[in-house]
Amino acid sequence: MQARLSGKQAWRIRRFGPMPSWVGISGSLGVRLPDVDRDVTREVERLVKRGTGIVTGGAPGVDMLAMDAALRIDPTGSHLKVVLPCAFPMFLRYVNALALHDIISHEDATHLSKLLATARSRGCCIEHPEFPKITQEAFSFRNAEVVRLSGKLLAFHVDNSGGTMNTIRHALRAGKDVYRFTYESGRENLGVE
Q: Is 12 part of a structural domain of the chain?
């Protein structure tokens, strides 16, 4: 079975065969575009309805949309894994700092914090307290963990962002199948991934 793709310039890096038990979802941090929102929500809903779990990184934007869709379809959280780059309280402080610096909206920060708390209460969060600070190294480790826990990767890549590309590279090095949806926002990349 081949996955059906949509979105601007859907780019198949490798043949996407039968669905594994878990599919990684990766995307550009904090970006909210109607096409991205629609595509992420549709793909995650389709996967979870078929019994496939999703693994994502818990960040604002694509990860948040993926968590929201997965928990809406399966409120138990049995089809969701959220890999955090640090301990849960530190990650919540990071999310709130993004809102304070206007990188994401306060509404998204509040919604994401609630989703993360729900995911954690259902045992879906995988925390990495061994990282005392949130750094590029911690995010790269998190991205590699999302890939390690997934059979395949769906990447929703806006403006050729570095964090999503990092996850794609991890997946390709691991020999995982990758689908990359590409989008352009018309904005300058903030470089916060």
A: no
